[in-house]
Amino acid sequence: MMTPMKLIYSTYEAKVRFSEVLRHVRRGRAVTISYRGEPVAEIRPVQPSLLTMEKRLGKLELQGIISAPEKPGWRFPFIMHRPGALQRFLDERNG
Q1: Between these two residues, 81 and 93, which has the higher pLDDT value?
Q2: How many CB atoms lie within 10 A of CB 7?
Q3: Are 30 and 43 in contact (CB under 8 A)?
Q4: Whole-angstrom distance, CA of residue 30 vs CA of residue 7
């Protein structure tokens, strides 16, 4: 069985042929980016999470990191990102 050749692009080639690089990545191949002949980065497909939110929460519960909700069927509320969260946290913490 032949192993596929490693895909290596120089930084210049990767910049000029970025659409081609992304096509390889979307097809599941990792692409190495080199600078002056030395590998410096790798672009690869994102691995999908194999665990659902419920399974991840269950795993954390088994590890004792979190505890189950007191009300059965309770779900985490959707939290909207609001700018200034860090400042609100610091204000609340510092009183």
Answers
A1: 93
A2: 16
A3: yes
A4: 7
Confidence of residue 1 (pLDDT cuts 50, 70, 90): low
Helix, strand, or coil here: 7? strand
Q: Of 27, 30, 34, nearest to 9 (Cα)?
A: 34
Question: What's the Rg (C-alpha) of the chain?
Answer: 22
DSSP string, 12-74: HHHHHTHHHHHHHHHTT--EEEEETTEEEEEE-PPPPPSS-HHHHHHHHHHTTSS---SSTT-
CATH number of 7-43: 3.40.1620.10
pLDDT digits (tens, 9 = 90+) for 35-49: 999 999 999 998 777
pLDDT in tens, 53-69: 788 888 888 888 888 77
